[in-house]
């Protein structure tokens, strides 16, 4: 029997403003779309926090035995600076400043994004589509919206008529805003006069001569509106109606509001059952910003190369720190806070390392099944990781009492307890035992150095066939050898 049948889950739905019982559209299956990064700069810490929240949500669905299709896009058509009608295309601007092709910018920062998420032990999404790979789908959606009379062409650009849409629908259903208070959401200030209403937003923008990223369309050589890409990619891979759409709190308006409008204009139905939004991350009580120097990159936490923290902190410690706050709460990052988190993380891992040495008795003096259910209750209450962590430290207390002989545990409960606490720490929260990882790395280094020694001896004996065989087999395992004046080194 799948675990989800015995563990009912509640999710806070931004659309209703309430926690709701989660019921997937198709039993046993979850379709989840999360807005990914715009790859024009190094991924910042706030992005990591948002994507970490949805990584844990993804992990928990898998833990509950759901089959999950998790789609997280890459925005490689740079939308306008500040996502309003002023400024330049972010990727094109970066390309000009660094004298690169736009796709060189995209490649550089997509690699950085993947490297950082891998370092923080994120599971990859099921599908990671790109905006540039779905231009055709975006053009087809625009055609449909034009056919409904809600989209209109003006001077080679195409706009969404918010006022006309609002006659039969509710533009503002997600953000709770009134249409009179809406801001214009086109991409380019000089296109302002082409719009029927200041609230209208661009579906397609005609490219100016200096605009590098452009595609042919029935209306002009141009580029799609920012909001359109997520509508195209989410519906292509999850259908017109799917379970969960997530992102940062800052995307609720206008981005997600516009997505709802586009979907309803095309299909006549609301696209998503549960809208989820992760809250922001502050630094030392203030908004993070490069301009003020109140900023730190994820890689700078790991290296210690920054002026904010007293030392370097590991990815697992940083992850543990972030998960001590609920995903819908504002989280303040500081040296004191992550130092305290490091102590807590070490206590947790040390207790888990001591667990295999616990000896079972004939009976249990603690209700370990109730403790396990309390862990599930925390996660079933809108993925409440801080409450789960509190329960895990209750488990740490049990381990210490068992070591001291002050509590007893049966062999059946020991198996239950050990399996559950390891699953919640490593599978659900996605933490790593860094001591074990370091030990494995030391062993790997020892084995590779032994093989390098054997290769050097083979070369000295002029047994080049064996020397090449050792090198080629290491390469096949992803281990590169580099011969230099000071000897042979390796990289993974």
TrEMBL record:
It catalyses: tRNA(Cys) + L-cysteine + ATP = L-cysteinyl-tRNA(Cys) + AMP + diphosphate. ATP binds at residue 290. One of its GO terms (molecular function) is ATP binding. GO terms for cellular component: cytosol. GO terms for biological process: cysteinyl-tRNA aminoacylation. It holds the Pfam family tRNA-synt_1e. A motif ('HIGH' region) lies at residues 37-47. Its EC number is 6.1.1.16. Residues 374-440 form the Cysteinyl-tRNA synthetase class Ia DALR domain. InterPro entries: Cys-tRNA-ligase, Cys-tRNA-synt_Ia_DALR, Cys-tRNA/MSH_ligase, Rossmann-like_a/b/a_fold, tRNA-synt_1_cat_dom, tRNAsynth_Ia_anticodon-bd. Monomer. HAMAP family: Cys_tRNA_synth (MF_00041). This is Cysteine--tRNA ligase. It comes from Flavobacterium panici.
């Amino acid at each position: 029997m799948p675990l989800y049948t015995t563990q009912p889950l509640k999710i806070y739905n931004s659309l209703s403003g309430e926690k709701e019982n989660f019921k997937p559209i198709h039993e046993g299956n979850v379709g989840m779309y999360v807005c990914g990064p715009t790859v024009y700069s190094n991924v910042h810490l706030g992005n990591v926090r948002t994507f970490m929240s949805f990584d844990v949500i993804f992990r928990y669905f898998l833990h509950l035995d759901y089959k999950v299709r998790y789609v997280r896009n890459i925005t490689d058509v740079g939308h306008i600076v500040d996502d309003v009608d002023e400024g330049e295309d972010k990727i094109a601007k970066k390309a000009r400043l660094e004298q690169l092709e736009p796709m060189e910018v995209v490649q550089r920062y997509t690699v950085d994004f993947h490297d950082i998420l891998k370092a923080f032990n994120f599971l990859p999404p099921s599908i990671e589509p790109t905006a540039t790979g779905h231009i055709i789908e975006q053009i087809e959606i625009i055609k449909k919206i034009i056919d409904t009379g809600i989209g209109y062409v003006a001077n080679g650009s195409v706009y969404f008529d918010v006022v006309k849409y609002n006659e039969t629908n509710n533009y503002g259903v997600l953000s709770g805003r009134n249409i009179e208070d809406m801001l214009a959401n086109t991409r380019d200030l000089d296109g302002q006069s082409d719009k029927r209403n200041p609230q209208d937003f661009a579906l397609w923008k005609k490219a100016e001569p200096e605009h590098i990223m452009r595609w042919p369309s029935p209306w002009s050589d141009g580029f799609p509106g920012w909001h359109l890409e997520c509508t195209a990619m989410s519906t292509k891979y999850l259908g017109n109606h799917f379970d969960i759409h997530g992102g940062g709190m800052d995307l609720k308006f206008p981005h997600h509001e516009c997505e709802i409008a586009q979907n309803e204009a095309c299909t006549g139905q609301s696209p998503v059952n549960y809208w989820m939004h992760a809250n922001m991350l502050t630094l030392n009580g203030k908004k993070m910003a490069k301009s003020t120097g109140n900023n730190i990159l994820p890689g700078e936490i790991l290296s210690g190369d920054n002026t904010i923290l007293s030392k370097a902190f590991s990815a697992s410690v940083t992850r543990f720190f972030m998960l001590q706050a609920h995903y819908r709460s504002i989280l303040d990052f500081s040296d004191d806070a992550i130092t305290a988190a490091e102590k807590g993380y070490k206590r947790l891992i040390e207790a888990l390392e001591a667990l295999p040495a616990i000896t079972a008795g004939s009976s249990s003096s603690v209700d370990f099944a109730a403790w396990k259910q309390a862990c599930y209750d925390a996660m079933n209450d809108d993925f409440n990781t801080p409450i789960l962590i509190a329960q895990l430290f209750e488990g740490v207390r049990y381990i210490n009492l068992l070591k001291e002989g002050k509590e007893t545990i049966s062999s059946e409960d020991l198996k239950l307890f050990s399996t559950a606490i390891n699953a919640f720490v490593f599978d659900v929260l996605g933490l790593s035992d860094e001591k074990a990882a370091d030990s494995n790395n030391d062993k790997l280094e020892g084995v590779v150095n032994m093989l390098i020694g054997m290769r050097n001896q083979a070369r000295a004996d002029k047994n080049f066939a064996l020397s090449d065989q050792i090198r080629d087999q290491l390469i096949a395992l992803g281990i590169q050898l580099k011969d230099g004046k000071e000897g042979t080194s390796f990289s993974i």
